[in-house]
Write a structure and sequence with these properties.
The structure is a single chain. The protein contains no helices and 6 strands. The protein is mostly beta strands and 94 residues long. The protein has a 4-stranded antiparallel beta sheet with strand order 3-4-5-6, with no helix packed on it. It has a two-stranded antiparallel ribbon with strand order 1-2. Strand 5 and strand 6 form a beta hairpin. The chain is globular.
């Protein structure tokens, strides 16, 4: 997975991308809307996979922005929990 901070147009409200190995190369599997994403952290708990996204700021330079926790549902990552954050830069699973 790749956390995208901004695109070539300096837009920070953009998709970050989850890739999957197709046997010969990594290919786009799923895109999720992020906001100046600084970190994606995958972890597994009790046999369930999660992907945490640290959102830094929105396009209007608002640093009070939610960061997201996604849960694997068997075919895609879907929003599981939302965390109010201020300029989040990192996730750590422990």
């Amino acid at each position: 997975a790749v956390a995208n901070y901004r695109n070539n147009s300096n837009n920070v409200d953009i998709d970050s991308v989850i890739y999957q190995w197709n046997g010969t190369a990594f290919a786009v599997f799923q895109s999720i809307l992020t906001h100046s994403a600084c970190d994606l952290e995958w972890f597994s708990m009790n046999g369930t996979s999660y992907l945490a996204v640290a959102n830094y700021a929105s396009g209007d330079s608002n640093y009070d922005i939610d960061s997201m926790l996604y849960q694997w549902n068997g075919s895609a990552f879907t929003v599981f929990q939302v965390f109010p954050t201020h300029g989040a830069r990192d996730w750590e699973w422990f």
